[in-house]
Amino acid sequence: MKALLLVSGLGFLGILSEILNFKKFIYKLSIVGLLAAIVVTFLEWDNPTPAYFNNMVYFDNLAISFIAVLLITGLLWFLMAESIFENDGLQSDKSTLVLFSIVGAVCMVAYNNITMLFIGIEILSICMYVLAGSKKESLGSNESAMKYFLMGAFATGFLLMGIAFIYGASASFDVMEIKAYMSNSPQNIELVYTGIILLAIGLAFKISAVPFHFWAPDVYEGAPIQVTALMSTIVKTAAIAAFYKLFTVSFGSQEIVWSTTLSYIAALSVLIGNIIAVFQSNVKRMLAYSGISHAGYLLLAILANNAAGGTALTYYTLAYSVATIAAFTVVANVASVKGSSDFTSFEGLGKKNKLITISVIVSMMSLAGIPPFAGFFGKYFLFTSYLENHSINLVIIGLIGSAISIYYYFRLIVNLFKGESDEVIPLSLTSKIVLIIAIILTVAMGIFPEIMNGGW
Amino acid sequence: MEVIKAIPLNHYILLSAVLFAIGVMGVLVRRNAIIIFMCIELMLNAVNLLMVAFSAHHGDGKGQVFVFFIMAVAAAEVAVGLSILIMIHRNTETTDVGFLNKLKF
To answer: I need a labelling partner for A247 at 20 to 30 A (CA). Which of A203, A352, A422, B47 fits?
Structure first.
């Protein structure tokens, strides 16, 4: 709760800095504020009274873990994106938009009322539409913003229609009241079915799962690299957490309605995301398709429909976000020197750029799910939570997808050592800090997976 | 309240579903960005109508409060959408979504 207020306050500070003229300090203030928010979040662990604002938000331990994941990702993002906060008069706009999008994400993971979920999604999305178009003169960025806006608003329509049907059936927006309504043989079952499927469509758009993924690669490629990093980490984490809470808590007893649909969505996301990623020549697009396949893996935690799925989800989202931020840090730095983010830009960089090489190897292996890195245990926890009460079919599809993904993740590593080049990519201090933190976190989470699973 | 309840709930659901479907078709078929915005508004208004009808039939105000949230958010969304459109119009001199084809694999 305090973290939510603190980050909102930081956002307002960004607006005030425009009037009171302290824009120069807003970047450093945001970083310090996010650090404080992380500390405050952990202090709220085992909160005895988790409900606030008439049960609108609910900060139980699962929500707090997700908020911690979001804030850690947000902090790493601010460090990696230093270059877009240079003194151009617009830096406070950008930091405000990003901070408010984090506020929206926090609302999405801590909601206890569908109204709050809707508002959280919109706060997050509207900020992201603006950020995607923040390179005003670039046609790619324009196109990305427009596509993201159209698809996002379209998905919101489906989401709202689903909410309306659920409200019509249960006469409530409260997650717990809907749960109570669902568990004792609901009347108006047609409204419930339609509502659940429409909500699933709306949320699947937001996490970019197949067959609702068509916008993702274009939007990711066109947006500025730093914004793409934000989209593929914070937006995805918040959307999947909201998805998990709504479907396992509210609709958990109606599993029979949604489990088949979501199983197909998960299987298709894993297969199609991984197979199309193989044919990409641009690293940003490759990471977009890999994000689609990871959405498929994350859906397994929802299909598991048990408490272990929630812990697996926090672990996986943290592992995925950290590795993705590291990958985008490298891509941003290489692209700023070479002018493009194609695979060929990376050729020969392995000789002279030790830190870049190590972080590419660690993050790609973690994303591919190779032990001892965090990604392996993320997949392991997801699969075990799913297997607790389901058959093995989807896990086999997940493993096949994982095997395909090794090809394109390793292609980037191989590219680093292909050909001769003495070029040195200059890294700023903050980029170095991000890469080192990401490497340490990925390795530490892989070696001591119990940190998050047992201790938390 | 009583006037709304005089019409059976099914009629409201059907009307909203039809309006929603028209909105979805418009988004999928039309090529002008402004018309697409209007179709998205149509989808949201179908939801508003349904919310109000359910709210009246359940006899509680939560649905109507939600409608206010939808209206406020839709206004904010359209403000952002139109400014994106103006940005694009400055660069390309068109509002046709056919220009959204630069990014392809």
So the answer is: B47
Q: What is the pLDDT of residue A449?
A: 80
**Chain A CB within 8 Å of residue B104 CB:** yes
Contacting residues for A134 by C-beta, under 8 A, at least 6 apart: A84, A94, A141, A224, A227
- Nearest residue to A119 (alpha-carbon basis) of A72, A110, A1, A219: A110
- Tokens of residue A155, six digits: 């998905």
Scanning B12-71 for CB atoms below 8 A from A yields 13, 16, 20, 23-24, 27, 33, 36-37, 40, 43-44, 46-47, 50-51, 54-55, 58, 60, 62-63, 65-66, 69-70
- For an interface test with B, the pick among A56, A167, A214 (most B C-beta atoms closer than 10 Å) comes out as A167
Mean pLDDT by 10 residues, chain A (456 residues): 92 90 87 94 86 90 93 94 83 92 95 94 95 89 92 94 94 93 86 93 92 91 92 94 94 90 94 94 92 94 90 93 95 90 87 90 93 90 91 93 93 87 86 94 88 55
Please identify which residue in the block is written with the tokens 């003495």.
A422
A156 part of contact set with chain B, CB < 8 Å = yes
Reduce the DSSP state of residue B32 to 3 states and report it: strand
B2-95, CATH topology level: Helix Hairpins (1.10.287)
Q: For residue B102, what pLDDT is reported?
A: 66
Q: At what angle do helices A189-206 and A255-278 cross, to 10 degrees?
A: 20
DSSP letters spanning A360-429: HHHHHHHHHT-TTSHHHHHHHHHHHHHHTSS-SHHHHHHHHHHHHHHHHHHHHHHHHTSS---------H
Task: Mark yes or no for CB contact B84/A145 under 8 Å.
Answer: yes
Q: Looking at the complex, does the CB of residue A91 fall below 8 Å from at least one CB of chain B?
A: no
CB contact (8 A) between residue B87 and residue A218: no
* C-beta neighbour count of A393 within 10 angstroms: 10
The pLDDT profile of chain B, 105 residues, written as one tens digit per residue, is 677 788 888 999 999 999 999 999 999 998 888 999 999 999 999 999 999 999 999 988 899 999 999 999 999 999 999 999 999 999 888 878 777 776 654
ipTM: 0.94
A288 burial class (0-12, 13-18, 19+ CB within 10 angstroms)? buried
